[in-house]
């Protein structure tokens, strides 16, 4: 009986915490349905008076939102692929191979990951100018990949260490080479952490704002983050309801991905995380 009451209190507390964190989302939804260009009012209502979907029509048909969506998908998917191509073999090598400087290089990567990426902005700008990477998705994919690859290596490595090496040794006895072992054994067994790592890379790249705004100046190459920023360009042209509508639409792909892979979240993050 006491255990049941304890669980009830815990669930009530968790519901309250979830409700608290939903407040900004509900507020944004409310602003996106407003017919007037106001962000804050004294008589706030979750469902505003005279709600309208005109703001969603404006962002979809009056602004190049669909073009920005395509650009974001191209940039984000490219980043996920590039990061996983680098991180998967690196994580496997750190897990199974023995080589000089293994531990030192791992902790060096962790140390590099502790520094804010914004500190390298000037250096990256000079490199982009030198190699003509301004307004180029290749440059951003390289930056995003460098930002996310350290997390990806550590998370994948932690999960790979939970896979018994005996499975690989048995496959070698049967004549399998390293490529076959990775492709047919390791990757299927590590599917939860691969999916979750890919999701984290996707969400981080999808929401990235600083580099996209500074290194993309062509409106036709804007991502969603840069495009929404351009809507709020000056104090005289800001339209908060349209901006809120764009924000709600921008969040939909990540929500769909999250709900689609939620069954992998616990095993994909916790199993890899505890091996740090």
Keyword list:
2 domains; 13 helices; 276 residues; disordered C terminus; MetI-like fold
Characterise the protein shown here:
By secondary structure, this protein is mainly alpha-helical. It folds into two domains: 1-52, no CATH class; 53-273, MetI-like fold (Orthogonal Bundle). The chain is 73% helix and 0% strand. The protein is built from 13 helices and no strands. α3 (65-96) runs parallel beside α6 (137-160) and α7 runs antiparallel to α8 (178-189). The model is unreliable at 272-276 (pLDDT under 50).
Summarize the structure.
With 276 residues, the protein is mostly helical.
Question: What's the structural blueprint in terms of helices and strands?
Answer:
Layout lengths: L1 H31 L21 H9 L2 H32 L5 H13 L6 H10 L6 H24 L4 H9 L4 H12 L1 H17 L2 H6 L8 H8 L8 H21 L4 H9 L3
Helix pairs in contact: 1-12, 2-12, 3-6, 3-9, 3-11, 4-6, 6-9, 6-13, 7-8, 9-13, 11-12
CATH superfamily of the largest domain: MetI-like
Based on the structure given, which CATH architecture of the largest domain is correct? Answer: Orthogonal Bundle
Helix-and-strand structural type: mainly alpha
**Fraction of residues in H or I helices:** over 70%
Find the CATH topology of the largest domain.
MetI-like fold
Tally of helical segments: 13
Output the helix-strand order.
HHHHHHHHHHHHH
The proportion of residues in beta strands is under 5%
